[in-house]
Design goal:
Blueprint lengths: L11 E3 L20 H12 L14 H12 L4 E4 L14 H32 L6 E6 L2 H5 L5 H22 L3 E8 L12 H6 L6 H8 L9 E5 L2 E5 L18 H6 L1 H5 L10 H19 L34 H10 L16 E10 L10 E11 L3 E12 L2 E13 L26 E6 L4 H7 L10 H6 L9 H16 L7 E8 L8 E9 L2 E8 L5 E10 L10 H20 L2 H6 L3 E8 L2 E9 L19 E4 L1 H8 L5 H6 L3 E4 L6 H12 L1
Parallel strand pairs: 1-2, 2-3, 3-4, 4-5
Antiparallel strand pairs: 5-6, 7-10, 7-12, 8-9, 9-10, 11-13, 12-15, 13-14, 14-15, 16-17, 18-19
Helix pairs in contact: 2-3, 3-5, 15-17
The structure holds 3R-hydroxydecanoyl-coenzyme A.
Length: 686
């Protein structure tokens, strides 16, 4: 049998239920009697434990906690259990019935927990010994499912679950866990309600073991909800149907649409179990983006790269013909996968997210990052290193655009204080930093960051609170929020690309860097560069302090622009081809123009595969806005205003000039293939 769980030295406050804190009133909260609490204290002492009774109301939470502090100097565990009943059907429920229940259950738990919270926080900061501090909320099946005659009680109990869920999130980084149980147990509350037979099986002794486990320092559970009683324990979670996207293009959402899709909305086939607001939102966005992709709009809000001004190389305007992504944005694309990789649940490694820093990064781009589209990233944890002062988790992420591998990332996540577990110090799987040549740098660029820089990078998708929230960064030991690693790293790459790569993202092959010291918003970065063949070694210093902030860095450049890159010539060519289609349609006379008021598909092939599949939607009238691309395999965009498109179709505008003037935009990887002719012939037959 495994070792018994012990709670040596732990100070626990149990409210209510004839526990160590109990007013001793009746089930309606009337009267006051010290006997209930005293009896439990005697029982504990008789078994060799230590306990003191407290008779204050839970609404005086600070007094309760103070008595624990006076007696034992600390508080480790709070079990919010106090409760009363004032059952009435809703029509007969008085304000007093409502208020009393809420005051004892919800406000009481709030007051007690609030009084304990800062002590628990301090304990975490004050000691290096990991001391689990836990709060247990006692909810009720009535709160979860509702119960006849208990509207006041159900509302308060479910309120406790909401309180507990949020405390679980806020407490996670502080090592404060918060779980909720919905027990069915024999107690002073239930003895008048349940039959004698039922009561026989519902002993508090069958609930307490779950509470003990949830309170134990080995238990990692946080934010859980459990039903327990009669020797049975089960966990509850939310289940959500995939739902139905009702909003259709150009149509208002209507109640009739809700009625018509009711079965689909309520069907739990392929349901999900969102465990957090983020997951809930992600599932919903996934549904929406699937729907949009079906409609021909390629978008995925999580990896939509459209308007990220901070990422543009030299051009901040997404309408510019050379608008492109800074290659280092590839880091952000992979970040969500890193968060999902399970790194916070590596067995034996207790990760405090306030102590997580970007240690090193390697990024290789196989092709320039698309400026819009849906990208899929897959992460795997490849190694765990013990660096003494910290642990390093090495995570590889591959990012795909359709079938094509767009970039590889290797994250070295440095967990401050996570080392010393006797692990290995280095890994054969990591890309290593390289020291620069020992001569003076060949080139130096200095550029100031702004005070708002972190907010700007946050808008670019890196949403770590460490960079924006003073409370969070204080927990990490920083006087103020520090800049994203992506920021210093992004500045340096921009300097290198500008100086040695003609500002062309297609020249960017790979980058490796170590983050050695944080940078603060407003500080200036000095990038020192050494060119050796196609490799540019670099390091970065903070100008104001002279501190090295990025070390051992290098950027590898492609000799020529990456052959798979976007070529302005190809864009132009595709513009001409596109206009040619329009010209031929127009030349064929009004009958054809009329007929193609449906949807025209235009496919471009490359290496025998579909490189692009455009949809020109003329359904809503001549010259309707063209949407594109519609293909999982290529990222191509065509846009033109109604007027510009019609002008092109009618041959009134020189397509080359329209293209150069930005009135017609096409981007993509184009090689003209057989398919084009075939489709044009098909048109001719119409
Ligand atoms: C869950 C979420 C996942 C998401 C992750 C990231 C999300 C991002 O938003 C986070 C960020 O952007 S954070 C901002 C950028 N990063 C930084 O500012 C970190 C700066 N670096 C430091 O402070 C220290 O190097 C520090 C503190 C990292 C190390 O300093 P020390 O503890 O003093 O270490 P030191 O004594 O110098 O060396 C000990 C061993 O560790 C190796 N090492 C040091 N710095 C390293 C680093 N940055 N990366 C990798 N290894 C590093 C040393 O080489 C030494 O190992 P060895 O003995 O084997 O040589």
């Amino acid at each position: 049998m495994s070792a018994p769980l012990t709670f040596d030295g732990k100070v626990v406050l149990v409210t209510g239920a004839g526990g160590v804190n109990d007013l001793g009133g009746n089930t309606k909260g009337e009267g006051k009697n010290s006997a209930a609490a005293d009896k439990v204290v005697e029982e504990i002492k008789a078994k060799g434990g230590k306990a003191v009774a407290n008779y204050d109301s839970v609404e005086d939470g600070d007094k309760l906690i103070q008595s624990a502090l006076d007696a034992y100097g600390k508080i480790d565990i709070v079990i919010n259990n106090a409760g009363i009943l004032r059952d009435r059907t809703f029509g007969r429920l008085s304000d007093l019935d409502w208020d009393l229940i809420h005051r004892v259950h919800l406000r009481g738990s709030f007051k007690v927990t609030k009084a304990a919270w800062n002590h628990m926080k301090k304990q975490k900061f004050g000691r290096q010994v990991v001391c689990y501090t836990l709060i247990i909320m006692t909810c009720s099946a009535a709160g979860i499912y509702g119960n006849f005659g208990q509207s006041n009680y159900s509302a308060a109990k479910l309120g406790l679950l909401g309180l507990s869920n949020t405390l679980a999130l806020e407490g996670r980084a502080l090592n404060i866990h918060c779980n909720t149980i919905a027990p069915i147990a024999r107690s002073r509350l239930t003895q008048n309600i349940l039959s004698a037979d039922m009561l026989e099986t519902l002993k508090p002794e069958y609930v307490a073991p779950l509470v003990l486990w949830l309170c134990h320092e080995q238990c990692e559970e946080n934010g859980g909800l459990f039903e327990v009683g009669a020797g049975w324990v089960g966990k509850l979670r939310w289940e959500r149907s995939p739902g139905h996207v009702l909003l259709q293009k150009n149509q208002p959402m209507s109640p009739e649409a809700v009625r018509d899709q009711w079965d689909s909305i309520c069907s739990f086939q392929d349901s999900t179990h969102p465990g957090s607001i983020d997951q809930s939102l992600m599932n919903m966005l996934e549904m929406l983006s699937k729907e949009q992709a079906d409609e021909g709009l390629v978008a995925n809000p999580t990896s939509s790269l459209g308007n990220n001004p901070a990422m543009a190389v030299g051009y901040l305007y997404e309408g510019h013909e050379n608008f492109a992504c800074l290659p280092t944005f590839g880091v952000i694309i992979s970040q969500a996968a890193v968060m999902d990789s399970g790194l916070t649940s590596i067995p034996g490694l207790n990760i405090d997210v306030t102590q997580v820093l970007h240690g090193e990064h390697y990024l290789k781009c196989m092709q320039p990052l698309p400026t819009s589209g849906t990208l899929v990233s897959k992460a795997s944890i490849v190694d765990l290193l013990d660096k003494g002062s910290g642990a390093i988790i090495v995570i590889n992420v591959k990012t795909y655009h359709g079938q094509q591998l767009v970039c590889n990332n290797q994250w070295s996540v440095f967990v401050v204080g996570g080392g010393g577990f006797g692990g290995k110090k280095s890994s054969p799987h990591t890309e290593n930093t390289v020291l620069p040549p020992s001569r003076e740098p060949d080139a130096v660029v200095v550029e100031a960051t702004t005070k708002e820089q972190a907010a700007l990078y946050r808008l670019s998708g890196d949403r770590n609170p460490l960079h924006i929230d003073p409370n969070f960064s204080a927990m990490g030991g920083f006087k103020e929020p520090i800049l994203h690693g992506l920021c210093s790293f992004g500045f340096a790459s921009r300097h290198i690309l500008k100086h040695y790569g003609n500002n062309d993202p297609a020249r960017f092959c790979a980058i490796k860097v170590r983050f050695v010291k944080p940078v603060l918003p407003g500080q200036s970065l000095r990038t020192e560069m050494w060119k050796e063949g196609n490799r540019v070694h670099f390091q970065c210093k903070v100008k104001e302090t002279g501190n090295l902030t990025l070390s051992g860095g290098y950027v590898d450049l492609y000799e020529e622009a990456n052959p798979k890159s976007l070529q302005p010539a190809a864009d132009l060519q595709s513009g001409l081809v596109f206009a040619e289609i329009g010209r031929r349609i127009a030349a064929s006379g009004p009958a054809l123009v009329e007929k193609v008021k449906a949807v025209i598909s235009w496919e471009i092939t490359q290496d025998g595969q579909t490189a692009a599949l455009w949809t020109i939607d003329l359904k809503s009238g001549p010259g309707a806005l063209i949407k594109g691309p519609y293909s999982g395999k290529a990222d191509l965009t065509i846009t033109a205003s109604d007027a510009d498109f019609m002008a092109l179709v009618q041959g009134k505008v020189n397509p080359q000039q329209a293209f150069m003037a930005g009135k017609l935009k096409l981007k993509g990887n184009i090689m003209l293939g057989q398919k084009l002719d075939v489709i044009l012939k098909d048109f001719a037959k119409l």
